[in-house]
Design a protein that fits this description.
The structure holds two protein chains of two kinds.
Chain A (H helix, E strand, L loop, with lengths): L1 H58 L6 H11 L9 E9 L3 H9 L22 E9 L17 H13 L3 E2 L3 E2 L6 E10 L8 H7 E10 H8 L9 E6 L2 E5 L5 H4 L5 E9 L2 E9 L12 H4 L3 H18 L4 H6 L1 H4 L3 E6 L4 E4 L1 H7 L3 H4 L14 H12 L4 E8 L5 E12 L5 E10 L1 H51 L3 E6 L4 E4 L1 H7 L3 H4 L4 H4 L2 E2 L12 H6 L9 E2 L4 E4 L5 E13 L2 E11 L1 H36 L8 H31 L8 E3 L1 H18 L3 E4 L7 E3 L1 H17 L5 E8 L3 E8 L6 H6 L20 H12 L3 E5 L5 E8 L3
Parallel strand pairs in A: 24-26
Antiparallel strand pairs in A: 1-2, 1-6, 3-5, 4-5, 5-6, 7-8, 7-10, 9-10, 11-12, 11-15, 13-14, 14-15, 16-17, 16-22, 18-20, 19-21, 20-21, 21-22, 23-25, 26-27, 27-29, 28-29
Helix pairs in contact in A: 1-9, 1-15, 20-21, 21-25, 22-23, 23-25
Chain B lengths: L2 E5 L3 H13 L3 E5 L2 H11 L3 E4 L9 H10 L8 E5 L5 H6 L4 E4 L5 H13 L1
Parallel strand pairs in B: 1-2, 1-3, 3-4, 4-5
Helix pairs in contact in B: 2-3
The chains are: A alpha+beta, B alpha/beta.
Chain lengths: 833, 121
């Protein structure tokens, strides 16, 4: 039983875990893809923001000169981003301004006392328009050579720059060889237009273009930063620009083999008009190798972007306090982040376009209104009080908060509010820079929820494992117990699997059959242990009870009992008499094996043999004197000793009958003993019941007549029944004999009742009947109707023998009677099919 | 006058059957065990032999039957098994016994009828 339960639990656990692994694996893969995508998109967004900040610088200045550029870039530490190689400014130069531009450049002494005396626009030659690298940071021996390079001369670059110019957004080039050191990389460029120019259409932008702010990347640096070594070991992914591989963490052939992987995802990233394809695949076995703790990378990222941006604005304020109006209309307008300027009481003085985009409020409808209009009900009074106290104390407040749009919907923003002070140090304004973090939040939440799903799945699996461990421990304990029981059991025990291979045997098995456990495990039970029947005939494999049980063809309440003695062959070839029970092991109604218990019946056989011998001797020795008594009385009654008187004859007759009953009793004992032990086998064969009854009736007719009783039987044609004729005659003689004994008037009638399956025979008498209590006892061994005072009883074993005979036929025998009103004994035989 | 050999160890039974057979006009010789029975059979050449199965002296009635039925001179003599064992009927008949009688279930008069039947044939 323990074995079955153990198997069942293991199976259920396996199925549960398998289902969970499927979900978990899918979720893990999704999370993995999200993280990779986010690592890229957040960078793209950062670069865009940096470019916006640089645009702001130019927007704030009529002509950004090197004196402004260098400190700006250096102080903002833009070049500190590990993945950014260079930041630069490229100025668009018309051919007619070429000489003037070159001259001015050469004489720029803000960095070097000698200026750039050797500078020229290269590649050389006259073109309509040039886009010349004017500033580059960091400016070093490698990068300085790039100054004067006309990026328009490179078609790949020009395509991206034109696109940036026409769309007024940052655009990446395709993969190029960088002009600084020929390493593989790309540029992201954002346009800078003439201040105050109209830039609503591509045409206007084409006219208003003044230059580009540019970030240069080496792919190795960029992806080394985005995907540190070993960061996504469980997946293979590649980033494509068209057909060009920008990056891959392994197999460049992912695109060709994407359908061959159980898990695959394709994402498209855009940088202005440029698109990159991210393709991620994984094998199904990756579940265990996931990296953890990617979340901290994501959280807290927004701060960097804002600080860059904020620096640019504060810088502009500091440098250009006298140009506030211009700042408002240009630098801040250009940024992608919402900017709001309030007075010290929180009344909104100015907002930019991004603010409108973010909140839904047009500048005209919000200016002059209090900033608290944006408040949502998501934060308590404490929250706002703390914010207000921070900024009125002259400090910068940064944090995330939920605000309310014009349409009432809520959004999340990261906000930095900085007080602006006048020269005396008094706060004059507050500048709030807002970044919509909904997208980031969304991604973050996606990752969080995916991670939560992961955690849940892991927890569920952990719980299952815990349960399994507990069950395993229990099983192990049970196993030890079972082992002890198996070992201690005196009966031989064999457990086989569903194919009949031996899984387990006990000590008794080893002792009884002479096989070592190790010699038989895994062997075919039927082959290694041949079995012979009582007559010494080998039992073929298909007839072995184990074979039948495993085939499911012989299941009677899960157990098959072999009542007959068979012989197992020992290891040494000798035979062991056994009686065995084979029980199938069922799991979900499937037979998964069988347990055989066998009992060594050597001693039983010996006892039986002795009992047999004793009974034979006893019967013989009892019969012999009885035979003598019978013979001598018989002779006297026959008149061999001369004529005897009527009275003497009567007395001798009684003695003769009494002796006969004694003999009958001995006969019955022998009969019972032999039937019970299978010495007399009841063998029903198809036959004619009516003929058998006629024989029995004719045999008993004399006795009935002697007792002045009728014995009636009208033969009818009956269907063939399964019948052991000799035994049924015995049974009928028994029943009719009893009926005669207990009937003094009337007689006995034998009748039939035919049902579709059986023929029932009734032996009905008109005798004294049987009490209800006695009826229940009738067919038990040694029962004798106690109320009978009539000396001629001898009922003892007759009905019990009759019952044994009916058992051998698979039929029934029963009695119906009412005391004083006669009795009917009935038995049923099966109709031959 | 027909001669009957009774091979039987029980004195009461010997008395019973000898008396009856003599009363019926048969000549009777008897032996109390198998070996003696065989000697008597060879010596007297009886017309019929009544043979018990369980007897002292080591030689089982069925062994006696075997020897009788293999003996050229004796094999034609009908043998009626008179016993109180009912387990040996089949084998005794196979070995050539003419009848198998359970003494306790048979009256002497019935045995006489059987003897007469076999002597006729």
């Amino acid at each position: 039983m323990v074995l079955v339960v153990g198997l069942l639990i293991t199976f259920l656990a396996w199925r549960y875990t398998r289902d969970n692994i499927a979900t978990t694996t899918q979720n893990q893969f999704k999370a993995e893809v999200n993280e990779i995508e986010y690592a890229l998109t957040r960078r793209i967004k950062t670069y865009s923001n940096i470019l916006y900040a640089l645009q702001g610088l130019f927007a704030a200045s009529v002509s950004v000169d090197r004196q402004e550029w260098s400190p700006f870039v250096k102080t903002a530490r833009i070049a500190d981003y590990p993945d950014i190689s260079y930041v630069g400014y490229i100025e668009v130069v018309r051919n007619d301004n070429k000489a003037e531009f070159t001259e001015k450049f050469r004489n720029d002494i803000s960095t070097y006392a000698g200026g750039y005396p050797n500078l020229f626009i290269y590649p050389e030659g006259d073109r309509n328009e040039y886009a010349v690298v004017k500033y580059i940071d960091p400016e070093n021996t490698e990068s300085i050579n790039v100054l004067g390079f006309d990026v328009y001369s490179s078609p790949e670059r020009k395509a991206a720059f034109d696109s940036a110019r026409d769309t007024n957004q940052p655009v990446a080039t395709q993969l190029i060889s960088l002009a600084t050191d020929n390493s593989s990389g790309f540029l992201i460029a954002a346009p800078v237009y003439e201040n105050g120019a109209s830039i609503n259409t591509p045409e206007e932008r084409n006219i208003a273009i003044r230059g580009f702010v540019v970030i240069a990347f080496k792919t190795t640096d960029l992806f080394a930063d985005a995907f540190p070594a070993g960061s996504h070991p469980a997946v293979s992914f590649a980033l494509y620009d068209g057909n060009q591989v920008l990056y891959t963490n392994g197999d460049e052939q992912i695109r060709n083999s994407i359908h061959a992987h159980p898990y695959a995802a394709t994402k498209t990233l855009t940088i202005g008009t440029r698109t990159w394809d991210l393709e991620v695949v994984s094998e199904s076995r990756f579940a265990n190798s996931f990296s953890k703790g990617t979340l901290p990378l994501v959280v807290g990222f927004g701060g960097i972007v804002i600080s860059v941006l904020f620096f640019s604005i504060i810088y502009s304020f500091g440098q250009r306090t006298n140009q506030l109006i211009q700042l408002q209309s240009t630098a801040l307008e250009a940024t992608a982040n919402g900017v709001m300027i309030t007075d010290t009481s929180g009344i909104i003085l100015w907002v930019n376009a991004a603010f409108t985009h973010l909140t839904g409020y047009e500048a005209a409808e919000i200016i002059g209104r209090p900033a608290r209009m944006l408040k949502s009900s998501m934060h308590g009074r404490e929250f706002y009080l703390k914010l207000w106290n921070t900024i009125t104390a002259g400090k910068t407040w940064t944090g995330e908060l939920t605000n309310k749009r014009k349409d009432g919907s809520l959004y999340q923003e990261e906000q930095m509010i900085t007080p602006v002070k006048d020269q005396r140090g008094n706060i004059t304004h507050f500048v709030a820079i807002k970044q919509d973090v909904s997208l980031r939040k969304e991604t973050q939440e996606k990752i969080l929820s995916t991670n939560k799903e992961l955690e849940d799945s892991k927890k569920a699996m952990a719980n299952v494992l815990d349960d399994l461990n507990t069950e395993k421990e229990k099983l192990e304990q049970e196993y030890v117990k079972d082992e002890a029981i198996f070992s201690a059991i005196g009966e031989g025990l064999i457990v086989t699997d569903q194919t009949g291979k031996i899984l387990m045997v006990n000590h008794a098995f080893e002792r009884l059959l002479g096989w070592k456990k190790s010699e038989v495990i895994g062997k075919d039970m039927v082959e290694i242990i041949p079995k012979y029947d009582e007559n010494g005939t080998l039992i073929l494999k298909e007839n072995r009870s184990l074979t039948k049980i495993l085939a499911g063809s012989d299941i009677k309440e899960n157990t098959s009992t072999l009542a007959v003695t068979h012989y197992y062959v020992r290891h040494d070839g000798t035979r062991l008499p056994i009686m065995g029970i084979v029980t199938p092991i069922l799991l979900n109604n499937q037979i998964v094996g069988a347990v055989q218990v066998f009992h060594d019946v050597t001693s039983e056989l010996e006892v039986n043999r002795m009992k047999d011998e004793f009974l034979n001797i006893a019967a013989h020795d009892l019969r012999t004197p009885s035979a003598a008594v019978r013979g001598f009385i018989s002779r006297v009654l026959d008149g061999d000793a001369g004529e005897i008187s009527g009275k003497a004859k009567d007395l001798l007759q009684s003695a003769y009958e009494g002796n006969k009953r004694l003999i009958r009793l001995v006969d019955d004992f022998l009969m019972v003993s032999r039937i019970e032990r299978g010495k007399i086998i009841v063998e029903p064969k198809p036959g004619k019941l009516e003929a058998t009854i006629e024989k029995a009736v004719s045999e008993m007719a004399g006795l009935a007549k002697e007792n002045d009783l009728y014995l009636k039987y009208d033969p009818v044609t009956l269907p063939n029944v399964l019948i052991d004729e000799e035994r049924i005659i015995e049974l009928l003689i028994n029943l009719i004999g009893n009926a005669i004994k207990f009937t003094s008037n009337g007689g006995i009638t034998v009748t039939h009742e035919v049902t579709p399956d059986t023929v029932i025979t009734h032996v009905t008498d008109t005798g004294i009947g049987i009490s209800a209590t006695a009826q229940k006892q009738l067919f038990k061994k040694y029962f004798k109707v106690s109320s009978q005072e009539i000396a001629q009883s001898g009922l003892g074993l007759g009905l019990y023998i009759s019952k044994l005979i009916m058992d051998g036929h698979g039929g029934k025998i029963w009695a119906n009677s009412e005391e004083g009103k006669g009795a009917t004994f009935s038995f049923s035989l099966s109709v031959t099919k | 006058m027909a001669k009957i050999l009774l091979i039987e160890d029980d004195k009461l039974i010997i008395k019973l059957y000898t008396g009856k057979l003599i009363d019926e006009g048969f000549e009777v010789v008897s032996a109390e065990n198998g070996p003696v029975g065989l000697q008597m059979a060879r010596k007297h050449k009886p017309n019929l032999i009544l043979l018990d199965i369980l007897m002292p002296g080591g030689l089982h009635g069925l062994s006696v039957l075997d020897i009788l039925k293999k003996d050229q001179e004796l094999q034609s003599i009908p043998v009626i098994i008179l016993t109180n064992l009912d387990s040996q009927k089949m084998i005794a008949l196979l070995k050539g016994a003419s009848e198998y009688i359970i003494k306790a279930n048979t009256d002497p008069s019935e045995i006489i009828s059987l003897i007469k039947k076999h002597l006729k044939s």
